Amino acid sequence: MPSPSDYDVWLFDLDGTLVDTEWSYTREVFDRVGDRMGTQFSDREAEVLWHGLGGSRNVQLREWGFDPPAFWDAFHEIEDPQARAEATYLYDDAAYVADLDAPVGVVTHCQEFLADPVLDALDVRDWFDVVLCCDDDTGWKPDPRPLELALGDVGADPDHDAVYAGDAASDVGAAMNAGLDAVHVERHAPEKRGHCVLGDHRVESFDDLFDARAE
């Protein structure tokens, strides 16, 4: 297992990695999106799409017969930034991030209008030297470009030893495509995901990752 001193830069995913949202909020969002689209999302479908358990959300939507642009338009119209912030909590083991003595960044698919209120409500914005919210211009994980942009924003060059930690297969893919070490934090049982995600390091909690330095 690595220790914090093993890397010059630490990058993290946000949703499902450092923070998560109360199920009641998630369920309400999918109920409202379903009403807007004239369909219903099961609990399983909502969980898979919210956490990206099936891999690419757009691919999953198409497999289930949903139009991705229509889904995302409805999703972003319905989500209320303040309500989401109030329903979002910080994982206990994310506290390690505040103590990292290196440049630290977030690279997330969460849109800026949603991510900003969450970071402010949880009072963790000052943990990060850069927050990059992916869009069509930056590209989407597992494309490496968002990670490369974040590294550039903190002044890191290709020779820096950097790592990216996330809970999804796309996070591990982005890290590998960018030439970074990948930490997969498994917040869900593999049977829910339907497969294992294998990074350079695979942990169930950041306790497993950071406490290893004391052994």
Quick structural gist:
The protein has helices at 23-37, 43-51, 57-63, 68-78, 81-87, 112-121, 145-153, 169-177, 190-193, 206-210, and strands at residues 9-12, 19-21, 88-90, 104-108, 130-133, 162-166, 181-185, 201-203. Helix 1 (23-37) crosses helix 4 (68-78). The chain is 40% helix and 15% strand.
Salient structural properties:
215 residues; Rossmann fold; 6-stranded parallel beta sheet; two-stranded antiparallel sheet; 10 helices; 15% strand
- What name goes with the CATH superfamily of the largest domain? HAD superfamily/HAD-like
- How many individual helices? 10
Provide the CATH top-level class of the largest domain. Alpha Beta
Number of beta-strand segments = 8
* Stretches with pLDDT under 50, minimum 5 residues: none
SS class: alpha/beta
Query: N- to C-terminal separation?
Result: 10 Å
Helix share, percent: 40-55%
Shape: globular
**Spatial extent as radius of gyration:** 17 Å
In N-to-C order, the SSE pattern is EEHHHHHEEHEHEHEHEH
**Beta-strand percent range:** 5-15%
Mean of pLDDT = 90
Describe the sheet with the most strands: 6 strands, parallel
CATH architecture designation of the largest domain: 3-Layer(aba) Sandwich
Number of domains: 2
How are the strands of the biggest sheet laid out side by side?
5-4-1-6-7-8
**CATH fold label of the largest domain:** Rossmann fold
